[in-house]
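Support request, priority: normal
Reporter: lab tech (M.K.)
Component: structure prediction queue

Hi team, I submitted a job for DNA polymerase III subunit delta' from Sporosarcina globispora yesterday, and the status page still shows it as pending. I've pasted the exact input below so you can check whether something in the sequence is tripping the parser. The sequence length should be 335 residues. Please let me know if I need to resubmit or if it's stuck on your end.
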Amino acid sequence: MGKTWEQLEAIQPVVLKMFKNSIVKDRLAHAYLFEGMKGTGKREASMLLAKSRFCREPLDGYVPCETCSNCKRINSGNHPDVHILEPDGLSIKKSQIQSLQEEFSKTGVESKRKLYVIVHADRMTVNAANSLLKFLEEPHSETTAVLITEQSQQMLPTILSRCQTISFKPLSPAEMIQQLKNNGVDPAQAPLLAQITNNMDEALQYSSDDWFVQAQKIVLKLYEVVKKNPLEAMVALQEDWFLHFKEKEQIDRGLDLLLLIFKDLLYIQLGKQDQVVHLNERNRLEQFALQSSTKRLTEQMTAVLEAKRKLQANMNPQLLMEQLVLKLQEGSSFV
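Reply from support: The job had stalled in the queue. We restarted it manually and it finished. Here are the results:
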């Protein structure tokens, strides 16, 4: 089941207010483009819009009841007048758009209303996009189209111009923390996850991922040995880090976690304890913070950020990490 009106309103209040006004005034556009980062509720919003359109007894005229047969069928993905189109392989093909058009040329099975959703609309082939364009140019008065994308810049301007664009905003860390707690995530882990990503789906995935739990331990251990001596730090890289952080994306995640340790130490020094994200390690970090200067922490954070930049520029990851460890120890920023 998708999110209820209240749940989505907590994440995307502006979008839901617009829905409410359009539905109550019966001014829904015939085509919408939902654009925004992954995990911001675009797909859930399209299903909510469908339920608002087809619900037999909407509360206050716009909130789906979630209990009538139409709401239940939309939630389970088998309402005959609601169609969802997803990429077939890497792209959405012309034949898929044509099948959709054929479906829509028939009268609505249960009412005149119809709604279709195209997920990853930016992945339409040129032929598929041109096919859809004709469809959008001759809208049926009771048909609603929803195109969903994370990459609106990759879509044909002619399609964009025929849709009302609705932007889904990324969640703020405070909203993320609350949503994560609502989803049963350990309150001590939520602040860290909210700093690592503002994608709700990704954060929930990390919260139950053994790799991520282990990653945090390895990063903390690396920080501790960096404080001791260069040799031990190099051994820790070989024995722990390189075995765990293998792909570029994983290394980048590891660097993010390392950066968060330095940020926490800086917050402690500045007396901003409420912004610390390593809640379970706070006592240890307070001890570490006494052993460093604000200037040194700033230089170390600069070194980590520089390592992230070099990683994206495809520098050899092993060399990059060895250089970083040495820089963190001498406390000077990258040359």
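The two ends are 53 Å apart (CA to CA). The chain has two domains: 5-170, 209-330. Let us know if anything else looks off. Ticket resolved.
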